[in-house]
Amino acid sequence: MHTSKSHAKTVLLVLATSNMHKIREFRAMLKAIPNLDVLSLLDFPHYQLPEETGTTFEENAILKAVDAAAALKHWVLADDSGLVVPALNGAPGVYSARYAGNNASDADNRKKLLSDMQHLLDDDRQAYYECWIVLASPEGVKKSVRGTCEGKILTAERGRGGFGYDSLFVKHEYSKTFSELEESVKNRISHRRKAFDKMVASLEALAADATCTT
Description:
This protein has about 210 residues and is of the alpha/beta class. It has a single domain (about 5-210), classed as Maf protein. It has 5 helices and 6 strands; from the N terminus they run E-H-E-H-E-H-E-E-E-H-H. It has helices at about 20-30, 55-70, 105-115, 185-190, 190-210, and strands spanning about 10-15, 35-40, 75-85, 125-135, 140-155, 170. The chain has a 6-stranded mixed sheet. Helix 1 (about 20-30) links the parallel strand 1 (about 10-15) and strand 2.
């Protein structure tokens, strides 16, 4: 046979995000799947995601995946995730990225969370990250999956890595915050990884389908 690996047919998959942290995290996980040509919204500067109007992480992930797939005419992987604190009635929840306001920075959001939780002790500081990942083609949703990571919120920040609320979050049975953990360790135990593991079979099937239109 004359076929070489460099000429193997690939499937174009677009990550529906321009967040460099998420792009790096997804790329690290997708590396194990051959024949995927992974791009992100950084490669499509003319396109803007729709406003996140969903009331759940799943609704927002579906909204992003379907809109991007239809607009870009490619397979799309989208996620929506955030931090849930039961003692705060589920906040920050779907507003995790804009908890302190529409133009809030990660630091602003962490500061508000610490303020809102200053009266909470021990078990009341339990929290979990939740992630929904959706795979969509231009024709619509193919698969939707959920992953969670349980832990607690500290009373002060620790660590310089990660993003979002990572410097405040310690996973159960770990002593370091997500900010303090090595990126490879976080990528192995995170909510996004747990959701991604449920998506792998669908992505492998997509990549293995030589007749797929890219």
